[in-house]
Each structure stands twice: as structure tokens, then as C-alpha cells.
Design a protein that fits this description.
The chain is an alpha+beta fold. It has a single domain, classed as (Glycosyl)asparaginase (Glutamine Phosphoribosylpyrophosphate, subunit 1, domain 1, 4-Layer Sandwich). Helices cover 30% and strands 26% of the residues. It contains 8 helices and 13 strands. It has a 9-stranded mixed beta sheet. Strands 7-8-9-10 form a 4-stranded antiparallel beta sheet. Helix 2 runs antiparallel to helix 3. It binds aspartic acid (ASP). Aspartic acid binds next to strand 8.
Length: 303
Amino acid sequence: MIAIIGTWKMSSAGVFEAHDLLKGGAPAGDAVIHAVTRVEDEPAFCSVGYGGLPDRDGHVMTDAAYMDGATLRMGAIASAENIKNPILAARLLCGRETNCLLAGHGAELFAIRHGLDMRDMRTEESMRRWRQATQERPERLTAYTGHDTVCVLGLDAAGHLVAGVSTSGLFMKDPGRVGDSPIIGSGFYADDRYGAAAATGLGEDIMRGCLSYEVVSRMKHGQNPWEACQGALRELSARKIELGEDAGSISLIALAPDGSYGAATTLSCFPFAAARGDGHDLFVTDSHGKVRDVGEAELIGVD
Ligand code: ASP
């Protein structure tokens, strides 16, 4: 059984194309890379790759990760600038015994040395947002006024699972801030034996629950992907509420080795794209765990 799932509506075109690649026999890694790079290259998606959300200093700093569920190897970059496709750097780093997570200058040098394309990731639009945020309402800035990571989980015909994630992180983040996305077990996890999971939302909260590992661990203990996502998120939300906080903003996706998938969110509307066997669709779920199959038209104006 082949299957693929991606976060947010912005992933849908790439996920559906990647589904076709899987149907044609492509390995999960190639399918995931296809879906993620498609989002990275599209400047209209302002939270990932080219045209991403700048940090406080006006730099677009990216985080990305790639994990191979067959070997449990991962590669990731953090706080890296000007790498055209951060997910390609993460994939190249996957499989190394040491030095598989590179940050900042080291990640950029690695990309250059391996011949990856470099580009100024700022666009007119990303700089317009930055100028507006700094000049017009500096006193109202919070770390979490913009976000959204593309996370894609793929399962190929050989039964291999791969997770890939890419983001520019929080809008107006402090220079050097790293979220959950390049952190194994928090932003992503994949193990061919039990399943794969990934997270989007406030990284500082996602890391508190090591949520992607928690989801895969629940699948290991017999939960299906829906139960695992819902259970992991409910547990962290309940603890946050006990601590006097709100549930925050977190969404999860998961994919099992049998091709079944699941999601959970604290939001009122979390869109995701999923494909399994021959069919593919766009769905939304909410904080009550209700899920609906929706058309593109219903999500106009939503990323
Ligand atoms: N998780 C990302 C981060 O904290 C942002 C997001 O997914 O919205 O950097």
C-alpha cells in the first residue's frame, strides 16, 4: 500500500503529484522531496522556503529535516539562510553517522559545497510584511503572529516511510531561534516498523511534548494514527491547561505502515492533504477530532 500525507492546503498540489510518483514506483524519499520542494519554491506560500517569513532582523532563516524510517537516520538544518531548497540539504545530511544536523553558517557552507542552489530567499512581499511589522506596530509584535510548516510523510510500495519538513519558522522570531521542525522526535519521526509523524504549530510547545515521537510510540503500542495523534495532543494540551496555559496552536499528522493516516489539531480548522492507494483528497479536521473531506474551493484564502 502506498500513501502520503501533508500539512496545510499549500501541500496539496505537491502531495497529489507525489502520490502519482509513488504509484509509478518512486521511493518514498523522492515523493516526499517532490512535495516539499514544490512548497519551498512557491513564493505565495509565505511560511516556507522562498518568500518565507523573516526574523526580527529581516532575514529569512530556514529549518528543515528529513528522516528515513528504514534506518532511523535523519538529516536537518537549522537557522540557515539562502539555501534555495532547505529540504535537499536535510536529505543530503541524512545517513551521516556524525554531523547530520548543521546550523547557520555550517549548513550554508555544506549546501554550497554540495552544489545546492543558493538564492536570496527574501521577496518583495516578505520584506513588505517585515517592514509593516517593524514600522507600524512594533509594540504589538508577538513571536507567534505567523507560521506554518510543510510536513510530508510518505510510504512507498516497498513499505518504507519517510518524513520531510521545511519552514521559515515563526514570523519575527529572534535571530538564531530554532523551532521543533529540525528537532528529531519533536517536529518529525519515522520508523518503518510503527509509523511516521510530524508537527506544525508553536515549536516551543511541540518540543515540550516531543510530540512526533510520542505519536509514533503510541502507534508502536497499538494505536491507529488517529488515536495516536489525538491522544498525544490531548495529553499535552491537558498538561498545559493544568499549568494554567491554553492548549496553544499545534497540529499533527501521522502515517502507519499499512497506509492508514491520522491527524489532530488544537485549531478550529486544520487542512491536510492525503492520498492512499488510488484516491487522494483534501481534508480539514478540528479540535474535536471531526474530519471532513473538502474541495479546494471551500478553502479559498486558506494556506
Ligand atoms: N513549528 C514551526 C516552528 O515553531 C512553525 C509552524 O509550524 O507553524 O518553527
